Amino acid sequence: MFAVATLLSSACSADGNSELPISATDRQPVVFSATMADGQTETATRTAQGVINDAGLKASGFGVFACYTGLRKYGFVDAQPDFMYNEQVTWNDGTGKWGYSPLKYWPNGEGVVDGSTGDTPHYLSFMAYAPYSDMSTGDAGYCISSMSYQHEVGNPWVTYRLHSDVTRQVDLLCAAPLIDQTKTATNSPLTFAFQHALACAGNKVTVKCSDVMKGTVVARPGTGVSKVEVQLTALSIDYTLTEKARLILWNNGTPNWQTINSGQTTTTRHIDYAPADYVLHSDGSSSVGYDYENDEKGVFYIPVHLGGHPQTAVITLTYQVVRYATAAPTTPIVERTRTVSTTLTLSDYPDAYQPGKTLDYELTIHDNTLTLTAAINNWTPVNQGDFVAE
């Protein structure tokens, strides 16, 4: 009996699961697969700066937490990620498979009690996030800079914070948890279905003149045939956003965000667009094009309410009314220049707090005032950083 026990202990230690019931002759590795959940796949290379699609998921890899609960089903009250802790899973182009090292093996048990052998189920529960972070390196290490401890009891979590440089912001994905999994005879991969955990604002901005304003910028009487334009000369957005929050990796199909009791703060971001004297309205013979591509100015934000600290966007634009002496462009006469602004509170649009959504702006200039409406859209190819003037 001593010899058998020694052999079993040696076999279990070799595969990295020293406390699990695994025999030397019945080792079946835990293998993974991953995809974007339905409705979450982006066919565009990127929408907002840094959005992860299927290709991006393969490039970044993901981290896995796994809890072994023995004969009991998962209960976060006393579970801890003792089987896998932030296990890095990467894509191999050569094999076309996901992998990690060293391999972990299933504990014995087929999920039902075997009347002849007395075999009983041994449960493992898995949770995952992406991109993988070692909490110290690169942009992912900056944004995902802390997580639950290996021996911490309860649902695993990661803390996300907005990058201080919006050109280096990092998307965050979480997978639907795979709870109470048991070894099967086929050794099929466990498939994580990832979804976006963040939202985006300002990736598409539309600016236009009101019909009333268009009627007020006609050529002055007595000037003869002339041309009048409304030109957008500057546009910027100042955000106040929740800087960080905790994402619980246990969820029921919707990312589970929680505020942090201590150290919860807001942060600001200033975004400049480059309209370059873009024509919004023209009263003359020349045709005007209205489509303008910006440099992917969308800003990620955490879709969670922070008591007493609303998330806001202050949008400011400058325009001028320009008159030309003739219909053909000559030296312009600037009749007036005005700067107008408006403030949007994100929580006024409840759907803006749904992960994987983008809050797009439509601005209308009424001469000395600015009105704004917002539309909630999915991260789709039509939202690749468009600036539209009408």
Topology:
Layout: H1 2-14, E1 32-36, H2 54-60, E2 62-70, E3 84-92, E4 97-99, E5 123-130, H3 138-143, E6 144-147, E7 157-161, E8 173-175, E9 178-181, E10 190-196, E11 199-209, H4 211-216, E12 227-242, E13 244-248, E14 256-258, E15 266-273, E16 278-283, E17 291-293, E18 299-301, E19 312-324, E20 333-345, E21 357-366, E22 369-378, E23 386-389
Parallel strand pairs: 1-10, 11-21, 11-23
Antiparallel strand pairs: 2-3, 2-5, 3-4, 5-8, 5-9, 6-7, 7-13, 8-10, 11-18, 12-15, 12-16, 12-19, 13-14, 17-23, 19-20, 21-22
Explained architecture:
By secondary structure, this protein is mainly beta. It folds into two domains: 2-196, no CATH class; 199-389, no CATH class. It has four helices and 23 strands. It has helices at residues 2-14, 54-60, 138-143, 211-216; strands spanning 32-36, 62-70, 84-92, 97-99, 123-130, 144-147, 157-161, 173-175, 178-181, 190-196, 199-209, 227-242, 244-248, 256-258, 266-273, 278-283, 291-293, 299-301, 312-324, 333-345, 357-366, 369-378, 386-389. Strands 1, 2, 3, 4, 5, 8, 9 and 10 form an eight-stranded mixed sheet that branches. A hairpin with a 7-residue loop joins strand 13 and strand 14. The model is unreliable at 1-14, 42-47, 285-293 and 381-390 (pLDDT under 50).
